[in-house]
Design brief:
There is one protein chain. By secondary structure, this protein is of the alpha+beta class. The chain has one domain: Pnp Oxidase, Chain A. Helix content is 30%, strand content 25%. The chain is globular and about 55 Å long.
């Protein structure tokens, strides 16, 4: 495990408001849920991915899961951009049930060798499908991400906890949304970290993933605004 120190206390979230404290000054940000058009696309896209995994089909790119994330150095002139694996976490009142679901599945998977993806595929897909079977149980005001490299994204968020996320879907519609976020960094003992890690572990050894074994932190991207970027015909 890395020895990098995690910044603590910068961002606190309660009652639909995120509070960021720096140099003794606190700013407040009202949280927003992502719109139904976006959440419907996300759930549909994820279900299509799980169908493809179940059938052992090649997945060229998982657009719903790998948006572009932009972060800023407080003194920088341009953003740092990176594709990041982004998921969603259950609302706090539903988290214990789904955390137990995915961690129990992971324990069963870990009893077999990592390469035994065929033997565990049905369990893994069924578990992921159950998480997204009830979209109303998910917290659409936050995103869950795992940190791997502790590179520019981490350094920027540790000093300036703000980010924008841009998804672009496939043709012919090219559904596209931007979410602007304030970011909370959470440690490995947080149940929301554990949920994100277990969801990643379900598909860690599928061919579309670069296998990773250490995730020192996770992020909660709390949504403060969103923008529909879906392209439309301008002239007829």
């Amino acid at each position: 495990m890395t020895t990098t120190q995690m910044p603590t206390g910068q961002v606190q979230v309660a009652d639909g408001v995120a509070r960021w404290t720096k140099d003794g000054e606190t700013r407040e940000f009202v949280l927003k849920e992502l719109p139904e058009l976006f959440t419907t696309w996300q759930v549909s896209y994820k279900r299509s991915i799980y169908d493809a995994i179940e059938q052992d089909n090649y997945i060229r790119f998982n657009a719903g899961h790998l948006p572009v994330v932009g972060t800023w150095d407080a003194d920088g002139l341009v953003p740092n951009l990176a594709n990041k694996g982004v998921g969603f976490t259950p609302k706090d009142e539903h988290l214990p049930r789904y955390l137990d679901l995915v961690e129990s599945a992971v324990e069963r998977i870990r009893a077999l060798p990592p390469h035994a993806v065929d033997e565990t595929r049905a369990l893994r897909v069924a578990t992921a499908r159950e998480v997204y079977a009830s979209p109303e149980h998910l917290d659409w005001s936050r995103l869950g991400l795992l940190e791997i490299f502790e590179g520019a994204t981490y350094r920027n968020l540790a000093r300036h906890p703000f980010a924008s996320v841009l998804w672009t879907g496939d043709s012919p519609v090219f559904v596209s949304f931007q979410a602007d976020c304030i970011v909370e960094i959470i440690a490995t003992d947080d149940p929301r970290y554990r949920f994100a890690w277990a969801m990643r572990r379900l598909f860690e050894y599928e061919p579309f993933h670069v296998v990773q074994t250490i995730f020192p932190y996770a992020y909660l991207f709390w949504i403060t605004d969103w923008h529909d970027k879906t392209p439309r015909r301008r002239y007829k």
